[in-house]
Write a structure and sequence with these properties.
This protein is globular. 46% of the residues lie in helices and 15% in strands. The strands form two sheets. Strands 1, 2, 3, 4, 5, 6 and 7 form a seven-stranded mixed beta sheet that branches. The protein has helices at 3-12, 14-24, 30-51, 60-69, 85-95, 136-161, 174-177, 182-192, 199-202, 249-257, 273-286; strands at residues 57-58, 79-84, 106-109, 113-118, 122-131, 207-209, 222-223, 234-238, 241-245. It is α+β, with helices and mostly antiparallel strands and 287 residues long. The protein has eleven helices and nine strands.
Length: 287
């Protein structure tokens, strides 16, 4: 179906989504204010990308919310984007210059995925997409290697912070992780992302993957439409703004979420809102 047809479905169920909003993110709540701040940051990022001919797509929960209800999933507190390796390298180069107000906020979380920050504390997660190896055995090997290195980064970072009050299963790998510094494992994780992406491994591959994603996301293979990647972006509504979404959004959302138009039953958040509230309160006191 087209995005317009999905919007018609939304219109028939708008009352149900409005009821969810009243529970989780009503107008003037700190979460809703934070979401609108995130949306404004995304709009600025979108303008920047248009100016410099950089192609990206909204992703994961952001794409889900845009298609299902033209807005954030009610309790969501970040924005997810996909960007191809080629476009990311172009963006990274531009943001290291003096082109835009966001240029000082390009950083790396755990050395795993880049994040764009806009004060006060707006998370835009960029998930870089690479072609997935054509051979299923090579795909499996790369996924296993990626997950191992991901665990090493998480484990070594946790040990550095001495944050052991809530032990995690991956800390069982601590005897291996301590053989290298956090930076050692981060460098290998980053280098691994482009491993097996040469044409001899990926020519005519039907998949792309984000090898800088979270542990769960590493195994999520996205349809690849050569030579345009995820297809020509289409415009979708999101929190009052227009954003680019993958042309084959329907197949992608089915891959990620199954029956993605059903009302959400589980809640997932990243714990950013309280920190945002503290920053806003501090700024108000200064003013």
């Amino acid at each position: 179906m087209s995005i317009e047809e999905y919007y018609k479905i939304y219109e028939t169920r708008q009352a149900a989504f409005d009821e969810l909003r009243q529970v989780y993110n009503p107008d003037n709540s700190i979460l809703r204010k934070y979401q609108l701040h995130l949306a404004q940051t995304l709009d600025a990022f979108n303008d920047f990308c248009k100016q410099h001919d950089i192609q990206y797509y909204i992703a994961y929960g952001t794409l889900l919310g845009a298609v299902r209800q033209k807005d954030f999933v009610c309790w969501d507190d970040d924005i997810d984007l996909w960007i191809t390796r080629e476009n990311y390298e172009k963006l990274e180069k531009l943001m290291s210059g003096q082109f835009h107000q966001l240029n000082n906020f390009l950083s790396v979380s755990l050395g795993i995925r880049p994040e764009l920050w806009s004060p006060p504390m707006a998370y835009i997660d960029l998930f870089i997409l690479d072609k997935s190896p054509r051979n299923s055995f090579l795909r499996l090997i790369k996924e296993m290697r990626t997950k191992f290195l991901y665990i090493m980064v998480k484990c070594r970072t946790k040990l550095n912070k001495q944050s052991l009050k809530k032990p995690k299963p991956y800390l069982l790998f601590a005897p291996i992780a301590i053989w290298g510094s956090a930076e050692f494992w981060k460098q290998r994780f980053e280098k691994n992302q482009t491993w097996l992406t040469a044409d001899k491994y990926t020519k005519d591959t039907p998949y792309m993957q984000s090898y800088c994603a979270t542990f769960k996301g590493i195994s999520q293979k996205l349809p690849y439409i050569a030579p345009q990647g995820l297809g020509k972006p289409i415009e979708v509504d999101f929190a009052g703004y227009k954003c680019p979404a993958p042309q084959n959004f329907e197949a992608i959302l089915k891959t990620l979420y199954g029956d993605f138009m059903s009302l959400p039953k589980t809640r997932h958040e990243h714990g950013l809102v309280n920190a945002y509230a503290e920053i806003v309160a501090t700024q108000s006191e200064k003013n």
